[in-house]
Amino acid sequence: MKEFFLSRIRSFGYAFRGWWYVLRTQKNTWIHTLFSAAVILAAIWLRLSLQDWAILILTIMMVWAAEFINTAIEAVVDLASPSRHPLAEVGKDVGAAAVLIAALAAVAIGVLILGPSILKKFQGILGT
Predict the structure, then answer these.
(1) CATH number of the structural domain spanning residue 46
(2) Exposed (0-12), middle (13-18) or buried (19+): which is 1, by Cβ within 10 Å?
(3) Domain that holds residue 98
(4) How far is CA 5 from CA 15, 65, 108, in A?
(5) How far apart are CA 79 and CA 99, in angstroms?
(6) Which of 32, 87, 121, 122 is the most buried (most CB within 10 A)?
(7) What distance in Å separates the CA atoms of residue 81 and residue 54, rounded to the nearest whole number?
(8) pLDDT tens, 39-86?
(9) Considering the domain boundaries, does residue 20 fall inside one?
């Protein structure tokens, strides 16, 4: 039983090491961080419902997960194919496309959830 818990602790360590690697090495993570923070701050400001919060959190995490998976794909492709190879390029491009699709979906979801509330808030502020 002790070994089970120790192995779980080590697994968390590996996961955090991977998380730190992505944050240190992937420039797009700072864009994700900025937009994630902006959406969270907007959701707090707008006092969104729990359901809207759940959707936004899932959406934000979908983008982050896609970025992490893309980084893993790039690392494995670089290991397996250190020289340029057309299939290696396809693997990397498709991984990047997955992040793009997740980010575009996140923008659409953000507009659908935040858009109407932001419009109402500004209409109230402007008195229109």
Answers:
(1) 1.10.287.3610
(2) exposed
(3) 27-126
(4) 15, 25, 41
(5) 21
(6) 32
(7) 40
(8) 999 999 999 999 999 999 999 999 999 999 999 999 999 999 989 999
(9) no
| Residue position matching structure tokens 């090491």 | 17
Question: 3 an active-site residue?
Answer: no
Which tokens is 22 given? 């992505």
| Spatial contact of 74 and 92, defined as CB atoms under 8 Å apart | yes
Identify the pLDDT of residue 128.
65
Q: Which of 3, 67, 74, 89 is catalytic?
A: 67
For the entire predicted model, the pTM comes to 0.88
Q: Decide: helix, strand or coil at residue 127.
A: coil
At what angle are helices 28-46 and 50-80 packed, to 10 degrees?
A: 170
What are the tokens at 12?
């968390």
Q: Is residue 38 part of a domain?
A: yes
The count of structural domains within the chain is 1
Give the pLDDT confidence of 91-100 residue by residue, as tens digits: 999 999 999 9
The pair of three-digit structure tokens given for residue 45, joined into one six-digit string: 């400001």
- For residue 4, being part of any structural domain is answered with no
Is 7 part of a structural domain of the chain? no
